[in-house]
Specification:
This protein has ten helices and two strands. Strands 1-2 form a two-stranded antiparallel sheet. The longest helix has 36 residues, at 48-83. The chain has one domain (4-79, 134-204). Helices cover 66% and strands 5% of the residues. The protein has helices at 4-27, 48-83, 93-105, 109-115, 119-127, 140-150, 158-161, 165-178, 184-189, 193-204, and strands at residues 32-36, 41-45. The chain starts with a helix and ends with a helix. With 205 residues, it is mainly alpha-helical.
Length: 205
């Protein structure tokens, strides 16, 4: 039976795949706009500027897939620690440092005090906040660093993934769009549907 982590990945990956297939059909001209009503309508090609905007949105979908998968992976680790009633004393030093940092970053001491009965157990879950894990900074380097800290493997088939080189481009495009440094049209202009499909395949691998 698949874990929630992998089910969520599969669902998001399917969303991305459907969207990228739409982009491919759009670029090939097999999708057109029908404007008007049943009695009178016109068939029009999709505007090329809109097509570029839709392509740049593909980078947002890919980034969403990457960050949500990483966040869910870390959340799964903390859920597992909690379900096993693991003590702070049993954690690896790298995890202890994260827990202490999380604890320091938690501004509401009232919430901390109310949630702690047994400090060696409760400090782990009460200090964890999945919303603060990542903030637009996921790329291959960050994934490797996170994997080393939490003790899971980041090894992939470099032939299939190009060692995660696409992730930096996706992160940069996502941040440029999110912060308004580049327009959707600018970023969409730089990618063909075929290139996006290749990137998508490597990212999923």
């Amino acid at each position: 039976m698949k874990s929630t982590l992998f089910k969520d990945f599969d669902e998001r990956a399917q969303e991305v795949s459907k969207y990228f297939l739409l982009l491919k059909n759009l670029e090939q001209g097999s999708i057109k706009l029908r404007m008007g009503n049943l009695a009178y309508f016109k068939i029009k090609n999709i505007d090329t500027e809109l097509e570029k905007t839709l392509k740049s949105t593909g980078f947002l979908l890919l980034y969403n897939l990457i960050e949500s998968t990483m966040r869910n992976a870390i959340e799964t680790i903390f859920d597992d620690i909690k379900s096993q009633n693991a003590s702070f004393d049993d954690m690896r030093d790298e995890i202890k440092k994260i827990i202490i940092q999380n604890f320091k970053n938690n501004k509401s001491t009232d919430n901390l005090l109310n949630g702690i009965q047994n400090i060696s157990l409760d400090i782990i879950s009460i200090s964890f906040d999945k919303e603060k894990l990542f903030s637009g900074n996921i790329d291959a380097r960050k994934i490797k660093q996170t994997a080393e800290i939490y003790g899971f493997s980041y090894k992939t088939n470099a032939i299939k993934t190009q060692d995660g080189n696409d992730l930096l481009k996706i992160k940069t495009n996502r941040n440029d769009l999110a912060h308004g440094f580049k327009s959707f049209e600018e970023i969409g202009r730089e990618a063909s549907a075929d290139e996006l499909l290749r990137i998508k395949k490597r990212v999923m691998s």
